[in-house]
Amino acid sequence: MFSKIIKIIWQIVWHRIYLRWQQFFNYCIGGGFAFIVDAGLLFVFTEFCGLWYMLSATLSFLIAAVVNYSWQRLVTFRQLKSDKVMKQFLMFSLIAVVGLLINNSMLYILVEFCGFWYMLAKAAAAIVVLIWNFIANKKITFKYI
After folding, report:
1. Out of 13, 21, 120, 130, which residue is the most buried by the measure of CB atoms under 10 Å away?
2. What span, in angstroms and rounded, lies between the C-alpha atoms of 53 and 97?
3. Does this model's pTM top 0.70?
4. pLDDT tens across the length of the chain (145 residues)
């Protein structure tokens, strides 16, 4: 009897842990795709269009944020029939603006003061922004709205 109770408790706990990691994994896939869009556009805007890397980073980040929102809403947090799409998008956008500030601050510091290549600095900033975005969107955008 006692072993059955322990087994049931373990299954419940394991299931909850599994679901959380699965959600984070899905978030990383969508974020990874958005990163490819972001980094690709950053490179194209800077190298082929001749824009300053900080302007390129801002434009590419904003475009990638729309791609990321679509993935996260539909796949990661499964908000398929939400009637609060505009509220979610506005909250997601506010969180993305904070992410943009983190991204651009790190990018500028790493390039201008540490001598990093802007694409390598972008990859480092993306890791920090990924963590910020996941936690903020999970706790705010797709939970309460």
Report:
1. 130
2. 18
3. yes
4. 667 777 676 667 676 777 778 888 988 999 999 999 999 999 999 999 999 999 999 999 999 999 998 898 888 887 767 677 888 889 999 999 999 999 999 999 999 999 999 999 999 999 999 999 999 988 998 875 4
Q: What is the span of the domain harbouring residue 117?
A: 2-141
Helices of type H across 44-145:
53-71, 85-108, 118-136
Residue 34, C-beta contacts closer than 8 angstroms, at least 6 positions apart: 64, 65, 67, 68, 71
- Nearest partner of 118 among 58, 27, 30, 57, judged by Cα: 57
CA distance 83 to 27: 22
65-69: Cβ within 8 A, 24+ apart: 65/34, 65/92, 65/93, 65/96, 65/99, 65/100, 67/33, 67/34, 67/37, 68/30, 68/31, 68/33, 68/34, 68/96, 68/133, 69/93, 69/96
**Structurally, how many domains does the chain consist of?**
1
Q: Can you tell me the distance from the alpha carbon of 31 to that of 103, in angstroms, rounded to the nearest whole number?
A: 14
Residue 126 and residue 103 in contact, taking contact as beta carbons nearer than 8 Å: yes
The residue whose two tokens read 């556009």 is 41
